[in-house]
């Protein structure tokens, strides 16, 4: 159960009184999630989601509020946080930072079809196009600057073959990205896996959980998506899903020549990013709560497949 800080109906009813969101009808803890406490809140006016932040710095949360407000204003399918009558979104509840969101429609797609992939590509391309003008700034916490020191922490737990693989890859990334041309920058989701989207049939109802949001290389965000949405169990890319996402994405924001050149390496680097972060959770920094960590092997498999088979050709942009 991912409710780490239980709440009473009285606490939530008092919290709701600050907002023009109606009176509490029901409160339900949400079992999904690994980091924060989440509740479905039903009032006599609407369906809401209440999140208590169990980890991280309070000072970083205004960035997420500003980003979601910005994307909501640009008609992206994101849950713009509710602001109280004083215009404030971020509060404390039960001693934890708290935000209230509209509950978006839909379910997570376990095996996304081509229409769902295209809808995701379109939304992400739209988001990246407008996010280049977002004024906020939060450095990417999982980019090359993080990989360089953190990969040393897990080497002792790896086979000699995997130690060499990880060290060689990090060296290659440093050469490729450390002094390479600057790629287009903007605000990123930072963790846009399938379970951070909601669909009603083929329609994308929402992109959620922006708590890895940051600013940095837009290509980093896109590579995370392809490595999850368009990858088979053996790590190889599925051509149809790959092209559906990237074709729709580039109709909104065509990739630059520098991005096209960096694309195969970015797929590899984001695969290693998740292999490493999951290894860290298993061996170095286990979760504070009794939760089963994600399997690191999945992204080792993806990395090995990217090395063996390379990237697929990028769809061309119609002039």
Automatic annotation (TrEMBL):
GO molecular function: homoserine kinase activity
Record keyword Acyltransferase present: no
Keywords: Amino-acid biosynthesis, ATP-binding, Kinase, Nucleotide-binding, Threonine biosynthesis, Transferase
SUPFAM superfamilies named in the record: Protein kinase-like (PK-like)
CDD domains to which the protein is assigned, alphabetical: HomoserineK_II (cd05153)
EC annotation from Swiss-Prot or TrEMBL: 2.7.1.39
HAMAP family: Homoser_kinase_2
Family: Belongs to the pseudomonas-type ThrB family.
NCBIfam families per record: PRK05231.1 (NF003558), thrB_alt (TIGR00938)
PANTHER family: AMINOGLYCOSIDE PHOSPHOTRANSFERASE DOMAIN-CONTAINING PROTEIN, AMINOGLYCOSIDE PHOSPHOTRANSFERASE DOMAIN-CONTAINING PROTEIN-RELATED
Protein's name according to its UniProt entry: Homoserine kinase
Species of provenance: Halomonas alkalicola
Lineage, opening ranks: Bacteria, Pseudomonadati, Pseudomonadota, Gammaproteobacteria, Oceanospirillales
């Amino acid at each position: 159960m991912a409710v780490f800080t239980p709440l009473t109906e009285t606490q939530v009813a008092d919290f709701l009184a600050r907002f023009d969101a109606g009176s509490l009808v029901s409160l339900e803890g949400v079992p999904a999630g690994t980091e924060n406490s989440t509740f479905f809140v039903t009032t006599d006016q609407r369906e809401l989601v209440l999140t208590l932040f169990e980890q991280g710095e309070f000072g970083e949360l205004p960035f997420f509020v500003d980003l979601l407000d910005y994307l909501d204003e640009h008609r992206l399918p994101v849950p713009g946080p509710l602001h109280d009558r004083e215009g404030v979104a971020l509060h404390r509840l039960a001693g934890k930072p708290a935000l209230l969101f509209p509950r978006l429609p839909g379910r997570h797609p376990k095996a996304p079809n081509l229409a769902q992939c295209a809808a995701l590509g379109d939304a992400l391309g739209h988001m990246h196009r407008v996010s280049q003008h977002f004024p906020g700034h939060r450095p990417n916490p999982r980019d090359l600057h993080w990989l360089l020191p953190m990969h040393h922490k897990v080497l002792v737990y790896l086979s000699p073959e995997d130690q060499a693989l990880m060290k060689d890859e990090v060296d290659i990334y440093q050469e490729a990205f450390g002094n390479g041309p600057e790629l287009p920058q903007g605000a990123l989701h930072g963790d846009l896996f399938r379970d951070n989207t909601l669909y009603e049939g083929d329609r994308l109802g929402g992109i959620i959980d922006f708590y890895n949001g940051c600013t940095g290389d837009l290509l980093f965000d896109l590579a995370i998506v392809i490595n999850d949405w368009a990858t088979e169990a053996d790590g190889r890319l599925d051509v149809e899903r790959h092209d559906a996402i990237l074709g729709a994405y580039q109709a909104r924001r065509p990739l630059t020549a520098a991005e096209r050149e960096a694309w195969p390496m970015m797929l590899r680097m984001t695969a290693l990013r998740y292999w490493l972060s999951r290894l860290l959770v298993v061996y170095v920094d286990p979760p504070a709560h009794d939760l089963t960590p994600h399997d690191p092997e999945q992204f080792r498999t993806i990395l090995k497949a990217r090395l063996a088979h390379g990237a697929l050709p990028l769809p061309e942009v119609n002039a």
